[in-house]
Amino acid sequence: MRSLLLSAQTFPVTAQANGRYLADSDGKPILIMGDSPQSMIANLDPNSMAVYMADRHRLGFNSILVDALCTTYTGGNENGTSYDGTPPFTSGSDPSSYDLSTPNSAYFDQLDGLVKRAENDKLIVFLDPIETGGWLVTLENNGTRGSQISSGRAATTFRVGMPVQLTTTWFIR
Reading across the β-sheet that carries 63-67, which strands appear in turn? Predict the structure, then answer.
């Protein structure tokens, strides 16, 4: 059995046409061995993230599931801020009042740093753009158009060169 550890030659990872598995750059299926530090951005500073991801890699993990936005529902902060109190949006003060059309670049730079750190440790990131356990009120308040703007921005931010697979959050109003 080939190693679960990924190398630089593995990327980009692609979904196969049949939709049943991910494959490396040679088209070989990848067995996912993942961990789910969903609220990582809310709880770990960059140095702690680096230690955590290096440890995951050392233990044979090749992927992590992370929430781009998290609250107490997945172990984050009630107001949805990052580890140092940076809010994800410049308008509003918590998920009930955030405006999805006003992303805070400082917050998303921190998220970008998390993804780049994962790339250094050859970890695929399964990124949930907005978990609905704590952020459903945000989606409801922003409506379908605001939700599409946010998801589109996340999809284009991490597309090139990053080992990121966006998960899907369904929102039907």
Answer: 34-35, 63-67, 124-128, 164-166
Q: Is 161 exposed, middle or buried (0-12, 13-18, 19+ CB in 10 A)?
A: exposed
Q: Which of 2, 3, 62 is nearest to 34 (CA)?
A: 62
**35 bridge partner residues:** 64
User: In a 3-state reduction of DSSP, which class is residue 95?
Assistant: coil
Q: Is the pLDDT of residue 7 over 90?
A: no
pLDDT digits (tens, 9 = 90+) for 98-153: 998 899 999 999 999 999 899 888 888 888 888 889 999 998 898 876 665 555 45
Residues 6+ apart with CB under 8 A from 158: 112, 115, 125, 127, 164, 166
Would you tell me how many other CB atoms lie within 10 Å of the CB of residue 25? 13
Question: What percent of the chain clears pLDDT 90, i.e. is strictly above it?
Answer: 49
Amino acid occupying residue 109: D
Q: Is the dihedral of CA 62, 67, 70, 73 positive or negative?
A: negative
- Sign of the four-CA dihedral 46, 165, 99, 42: negative
Q: Give the helix ranges, DSSP H, for the chain.
A: 40-43, 46-58, 105-120, 132-157
Residue written as tokens 């692609």? Answer: 14
Which tokens sit at 154? 């996340």
- How much is the pTM? 0.82
